[in-house]
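User: Can you help me understand a structure? I only have the sequence.
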Amino acid sequence: MANTTYNIRIDSRIREEADALYKGMGLSLSAAVNLFLTQSVIQRRLPIDEIVAEPIGDPPPMEEYRSFDDWEQAKKWLDA
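Assistant: Let's start by predicting it. Here is the structure, written out as tokens:
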């Protein structure tokens, strides 16, 4: 499978928060975007149940985030 580079515009605050969030899960932002797009294609819809404009309360401590060693582990967890 060939990779493609794609440039997108992301709000800088969202980018920083997303980087920290996915890093805590053991994923890069690129891997998270690939995961999102893959689930969109599989489900034929946005893989989001609810959209919240602003965070509700404080995020959980970093130690509560799920961490993966590689993409395959993340995929297996998503498919479970």
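Now, to help you interpret it: The chain has one domain: 12-79. The radius of gyration is 14 Å. Let me know which part you'd like to focus on.
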